[in-house]
Automatic annotation (TrEMBL):
<comment type="similarity">
    <text>Belongs to the MaoP family.</text>
</comment>
<dbReference type="Pfam" id="PF04219">
    <property type="entry name" value="DUF413"/>
</dbReference>
<protein>
    <recommendedName>
        <fullName>Macrodomain Ori protein</fullName>
    </recommendedName>
</protein>
<feature type="region of interest" description="Disordered">
    <location>
        <begin position="94"/>
        <end position="119"/>
    </location>
</feature>
<feature type="compositionally biased region" description="Acidic residues">
    <location>
        <begin position="105"/>
        <end position="119"/>
    </location>
</feature>
<dbReference type="InterPro" id="IPR007335">
    <property type="entry name" value="DUF413"/>
</dbReference>
Amino acid sequence: MSDIQFRLGKKRFYDNTKFPRGFAKSGDFTLAEEEILIFYGETMLGLETGQLDPENAEEKHFLKVLDNPVKAKSKLERTWLKYAQLARGRKRFHTLNGRSKPDASSEDFTEDTSLTEED
């Protein structure tokens, strides 16, 4: 992380609304991604919201990545995109079946007694 030109945040970044137990304990982020978010998250959020102006090429590239996520090349940029998707996107919910109610047009199960009758 020493070759990063990105500014450190003035304070540590936490999202107690979406990740109240921390980023890594949520199961969605690795320990390295958690460190990136904690140390650089405030700066990335400021750049994204327009509260901060970019000071170097890496921060300018970060703003371009926000408009076009395909251009993400650094771990820092990919981590922020992942955070934004998880924090602001819809939470995936998995069920055991695809339908919540049985379809009215589906056939009811009826036992076919013609196969089990003995002549």
